[in-house]
Amino acid sequence: MDRKRRGLERVVVLSAAVLVLAWPNSSAAQEGWKPLFDGKSLGHWKSANFGGEGRVYLQDGQIVLEMGDSMTGITWTGEELPRIDYEIRLEAMKLDGNDFFCGLTFPVRDSHCSFIVGGWGGGTVGLSSLDGKDAAHNETSRIMNFADERWYRIRVRVAGSGIQAWIDDEKVVDAATANRRISTRPEVELSKPLGIATWVTKAAVRKIELRRLP
Fold first, then answer.
1. What is the value of pTM for the model shown?
2. pLDDT recorded at residue 20
C-alpha cells in the first residue's frame, strides 16, 4: 500500500513539473501582460532613422542599441495600442556611455510623453515634457545612480488623469496630467507612437510587455 501511494505521489509531482514547463509565462498571462517582443526577432519593432544612429540587433534574447552620434532607438510598427488606462514594462541595461539608456516614448490620450532614465549626464529621471518643461526642469525630475551592465525593471502606467512610473520596485514618478500640456521633445518624434531610445549610449532592452487596465 505504501509503495502504491509513493508511486502516486511521484506522478503528481511529475505532472505539476510538466505544467510549469508547459506554461512558463502563465503568471504574466494571468495578470494580463501581453508580450511586444518575443526575444527571437525584432518582430514589429524597427530601427528609428534618427540620423547618426547606432546599429540595432538581437543578441541572447535582447535588443541591443549600439551607441550613436546622438540617438539610437526602436519604434513599434504593430497593432494600434491603447492611449489611456494601460501599463507598459520592460527591462533595460546600460552597457556604455553617460546619458539616458532608456527613453521610453508612449501614448497619452491625444498626445505622447517620454520617460527618461539616466539623462543629462547619466542620472536624471523624469517625464519629458509637462507644460513644455522636460525631465530636467519639471517636478518629476530627480537624480539617481545607475550601474553599467545591470538590468533595471522599468514600468509606466497611464491611467485616469495621471502618469506613474517605477524603476525596479520604487515609484519615481507620480504626476497629475489633468489640464496640463503633455508633449515630447522634437528629438524623439520618430519614437512615436511607442519607442525606446538612447542618447550617445549603448544599451540593451528585453521583456517588453503591455497590459490594459480595467
1. 0.86
2. 36
